[in-house]
């Protein structure tokens, strides 16, 4: 079957993105004829691509990106080697309706597309084939889950800041003072570009640096200690960083007060 599919239609390859944020499927009740896919680029830009023939009914499969993301798809190839039925599944365990022919396909040739790596469970791009009848074949690229902002930890004073989303955290610079941490500045790597984040606060006593081998490892946990430390409002008294491969920083500051752990699949920004 794979040889026959490869000999038909036009090939498309969307490539790899930060995430898949939207899916629209068109069908004529018999075949899946059209796909509109909405991706989030690493720059934060939204990119829409379309494949197939826009005929019949076009319907969105709604999911709450980035908290929810597509993890797998199942499609059925009919006797005429067209994509007859298509189903998506998400990280929240939800399943889309059966796009295309929902009355059953005979003979049925099912194809399951899912990741075989725990660290890359999310669909981040598609490739496949289509012709003047619609979609013929559909495959996927998989990557890490999309980044999402975790809750803030600390006091209510001061000015809010946000470095935005980036691909990798490369270097963390920490400034210390008598009453806690006084400065944080992060260097990021987006593709081949080094992005130096803004310096937040100022160095008063000393400065430390935590380097992350971002090409083979990444930050997954930040331990945050907060305390008043002689102040009326709370501040961050200490930080400690941990990576996926077990690299642990020293304790920056004085570990006093409440400890909170910010943990995710991959930390790719600071705020």
By DSSP (H or I, 4+ residues per run), the number of helices equals 1
CATH arch. level architecture of the largest domain: Aligned Prism
Q: pLDDT below 50 for ≥5 consecutive residues: which ranges?
A: 1-5
CATH homologous superfamily descriptor of the largest domain: Jacalin-like lectin domain
Distance between the termini: 50 Å
Mean pLDDT: 85
Strand content: over 45%
Which percent bin holds the helix content?
A: under 10%
Over the alpha carbons, how many angstroms does the gyration radius reach?
A: 24 Å
Q: What's the CATH class of the largest domain, please? A: Mainly Beta
What is the total tally of β strands? 20
CATH fold-level name of the largest domain: Vitelline Membrane Outer Layer Protein I, subunit A
Provide the succession of SSEs.
HEEEEEEEEEEEEEEEEEEEE
The biggest beta sheet reads: 5 strands, antiparallel
Overall form: elongated
Estimated structural class: mainly beta
**Count of individual domains:** 2
Described by its quaternary structure, the protein is single chain
């Amino acid at each position: 079957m794979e040889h026959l599919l490869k000999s038909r239609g036009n090939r498309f390859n969307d490539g790899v993105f930060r995430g898949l944020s939207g899916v629209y499927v068109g069908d004529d009740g018999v075949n899946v004829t059209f796909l509109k896919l909405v991706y989030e680029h690493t720059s934060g830009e939204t990119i829409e691509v379309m494949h197939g023939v826009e005929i019949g009914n076009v319907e969105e499969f709604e999911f709450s990106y980035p908290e929810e993301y597509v993890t797998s798809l199942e499609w059925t190839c009919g006797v005429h080697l067209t994509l007859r039925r298509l189903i998506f599944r998400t990280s929240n365990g939800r399943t889309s309706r059966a796009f295309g022919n929902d009355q059953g396909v005979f003979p049925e040739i099912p194809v399951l597309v899912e990741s075989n790596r725990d660290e890359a469970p999310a669909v981040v791009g598609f490739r496949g084939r289509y012709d003047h009848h619609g979609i013929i074949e559909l495959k996927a690229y998989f990557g890490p889950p999309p980044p999402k902002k975790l809750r803030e930890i600390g006091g209510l004073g001061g000015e809010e800041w946000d470095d935005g989303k980036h691909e990798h955290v490369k270097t963390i610079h920490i400034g210390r003072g008598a009453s806690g941490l006084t400065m944080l500045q992060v260097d990021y790597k987006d593709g081949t570009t080094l992005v130096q984040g803004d310096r937040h606060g100022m160095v008063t006593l000393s400065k430390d640096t935590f380097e992350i081998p971002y090409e083979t490892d990444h930050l997954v946990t930040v331990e945050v200690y907060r305390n008043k430390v002689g102040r009326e409002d709370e501040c961050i008294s200490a930080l400690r960083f941990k990576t996926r491969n077990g690299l642990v920083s020293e304790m920056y500051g004085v570990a006093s007060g409440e400890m909170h752990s910010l943990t995710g699949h991959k930390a790719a920004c600071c705020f």
